[in-house]
């Protein structure tokens, strides 16, 4: 890497010029800011104490040394304590010659045996996926692809919360008021069908509480003693006992939900290497709780419930097992974590879960540490912010939560109307139009969500996301299609292209493109290290924006020199390939024609 070469030569300069061996960490090489001439900047302020000269004089002497001793450096200038280095065109052209034909440019080969296990999605089987799940799934899938592209093995996992009181509420409502109807008989998608009964339970439950309160019962007591809740809790106890009738109903209703989930996942373009079910892991978690009780790190209350005292860690007491021995979320997370460590011996366990669960994962790590598991510090909670929508938009079927399916339907219709209004579909047949609208709508949705740093809460506006001129997925998709159109036009005109164009004089815009392309592997590494698809999203936008400026200012096909035409077409192709690779890391397809 050129930055490493410049750092090494700067260290040599201090040895030769000032007889000083300095810490390499004091040499900072960064990209030169756009308003100054140069490609890389060396910040000399941290090292002037070794030169015993002013920042300007130190930078000047260092610049002269590098100009004389580094063939890649063709010029320099000094702005106060900043040494701006100009890298010779031959370096950038050499980079282009080696990299432009490499289809996997920026993608590292997997190394090592220990994978990074990344969990995302984690839905409950009592309702369909919603807007929060959309950000979760898109983040998790993209992060997995980015970490894999950085050279690590990755296992993508989903933990489906398929047991517990919330599941039993849907089951009880269907038993009471379903009259044997099914998703097939109603024409409803399976997850929406089951979700309808979860809402129905809550409606009847609230009505019962209201009636109890009107008859003189305290509201808090009414919520605990309502007969519907009692029946749901009894259903949960029967489930944990393995009651055949309850198990059969549970399997039937969960099966309906899984079919609905799979359809949504396919449309969203996400997948998993392994799917875990809480019903399979909570027993292992229970064993770990008993193990901790035997070791004396957990406490048992008089009612039989088991707790972990975390007050010395600045937290509170955490319930691990209820008095009736039924599990809580922490129980199954303990079991699932142990199971994954036993299966994969992972380098890291990454949980993509919203920031409302920060406390939960703080507790999980401490509890595992108390159990004596040395891998407790491999757990990493990727805490992301919530997604908000403009007030009054996209009301769900129940009027409270925005369903993922509703959101994707809305995106498709917005993409269709916007694209048709711009006249970008005249050359497409009906099947081609649908494919394009799917690609644009999902590209808009994914890019708008992933371009925001995961830790931030974000406002999602469907109409703003589908804009062919802003920082959006469709703008980048259109740039890729424009590049592919350039190559089709070159073929149609029968232009004689040179396979390996020689060194041509680089225009400033061409150098800017090459500098951006050069940074792509570093962007992948940064995104993987920080678990941030936003790094890739914004890189793709910067590259697309720079190319469009180049396209407007520089004639690509109107040149007479075949070597220049060939270079510009191959440079354009290189840009298109990197856009396709980068957007692919976000789970976004790019069209060849728009």
Structure description:
This protein has 594 residues and is of the alpha/beta class. Among the domains are: 2-87, Gyrase A, domain 2, CATH 3.30.1360; 404-585, Isoleucyl-tRNA Synthetase, Domain 1 (Orthogonal Bundle), CATH 1.10.730.10. The protein is 56% helix and 12% strand. The chain has helices at 2-18, 48-51, 55-69, 89-99, 131-149, 165-177, 183-186, 190-214, 219-225, 227-241, 244-268, 278-295, 329-344, 358-370, 404-421, 430-450, 462-465, 473-492, 508-518, 520-530, 533-553, 562-585; strands spanning 28-31, 40-43, 73-79, 82-87, 111-119, 152-160, 274-277, 299-300, 306-309, 317-321, 348-354, 379-384, 387-388, 458-459. The strands form four sheets. The protein has a five-stranded parallel beta sheet with strand order 7-6-5-11-12, with helices on both faces. Strand 3 (73-79) and strand 4 (82-87) form a beta hairpin. Helix 5 crosses helix 20 and helix 8 packs across helix 11. The longest helix has 25 residues, at 190-214.
